């Protein structure tokens, strides 16, 4: 009897938490049920397309997650990354030959234009595809907030300047997040996105040879992982790819943080969260906490994704529902 009343108390607590999150969303102008009446098939359309793409290639879940991140950090979450043209964000250094999944977004949008023409923004399609990329990789089932408008301009210099680089120290990365309203905890939690996906050799091979005057290999990189990465990257053009989360490449779990404790982070910006001088004070303790508490990581990840998805468009007065994601109407 005691355990039954405990259970109902905890259900009430849980319901309270859910209500609280939805109130937060309403305050930001986005909501969970935005298209419930205007496009009731939205959820099943996104799920079907992301699921099919991930059956063909599991990595696509990761690629869609990253697409949302790279959209949100440049002029806010406004679908600006999808626009073609000479000033396109697609051509910026962090995105060129790197961001993937545009064709999946276009396929979802084409389905939506049949089911409910002119209703769902491309920015929302990106956010929703990211949600399913996470969920279908085994990650948390957070409630994606909807109601974004598509921006009218791409911002190539914004993409070059606002997105964090894997060569940046943790203090610089933290500043880039701060610039868009995200805190140090968000840096650590959202870096946990690297529990899935791949990186090209060109973005970490500086850790593998001629690292410094005293060390040929980055001393914060495990030596057996270093030799297998040297094998992988040797003699190539830098386009070969390695798992960001060695040993658990396609599963959305807290193994990424366990790897950091074992010096098995792939990017300098990953390992730096645990090992770098500026990471030791700011981020190390959280890495340790997530490495031993998977539930806490998955829950916090959903919360930080909602926060990232709330980064407002730079020009809130300009916005439309694009017919085609690659061009303004
Ligand atoms: C903290 C600063 C971050 C840095 C420096 C960074 C850097 C990178 C780099 C260099 C790659 C490999 C790109 C390539 O091979 O061309 C990558 C991949 C990836 N990033 Fe990040 N990232 C950061 C934060 C994030 C965040 C906040 C998310 C999402 C919430 C994210 C999600 C991903 C995913 C899922 C991949 C794999 C994509 C794929 O396999 O297609 N990253 N990141
Ligand atoms: C591009 O991004 C930068 C940095 O966020 C911003 O200052 C600038 O106003 C943006 N330009 C356009 C055209 O949106
Ligand atoms: C490392 O440096 C040496 C000496 O400068 C050079 O010969 C060698 O090619 C470099 N190796 C790599 C992988 O860059
Ligand atoms: C990688 O692939 C791209 C696209 O095919 C190519 O343009 C580039 O030269 C290749 N090499 C490097 C180091 O990026
Ligand atoms: C980290 O914290 C210690 C103790 O407060 C301080 O002495 C040190 O300067 C800090 N290091 C960095 C890189 O901020
Ligand atoms: C915002 O967009 C509107 C409509 O395109 C435009 O007239 C205005 O100049 C833009 N404002 C800024 C600050 O970019």
Automatic annotation (TrEMBL):
Ranges in a coiled coil: none
CDD domains (alphabetical): secretory_peroxidase (cd00693)
Active site: 70
Main localization, broad class: secreted
One CC-aspect GO term: extracellular region
Protein keywords: Calcium, Disulfide bond, Glycoprotein, Heme, Hydrogen peroxide, Iron, Metal-binding, Oxidoreductase, Peroxidase, Pyrrolidone carboxylic acid, Secreted, Signal
Requisite cofactors: heme b; Ca(2+)
Domain Plant heme peroxidase family profile: 29-329
UniProt record, GO biological process: hydrogen peroxide catabolic process; response to oxidative stress
Positions annotated to bind heme b: 194
Residue numbers marked as site, Transition state stabilizer: 66
Binding site for Ca(2+) 2: 195, 245, 253
Cofactor remark: Binds 1 heme b (iron(II)-protoporphyrin IX) group per subunit. Binds 2 calcium ions per subunit.
Function: Removal of H(2)O(2), oxidation of toxic reductants, biosynthesis and degradation of lignin, suberization, auxin catabolism, response to environmental stresses such as wounding, pathogen attack and oxidative stress. These functions might be dependent on each isozyme/isoform in each plant tissue.
Official protein name in the record: Peroxidase
Source organism: Lolium multiflorum (Italian ryegrass)
Lineage: Eukaryota, Viridiplantae, Streptophyta, Embryophyta, Tracheophyta
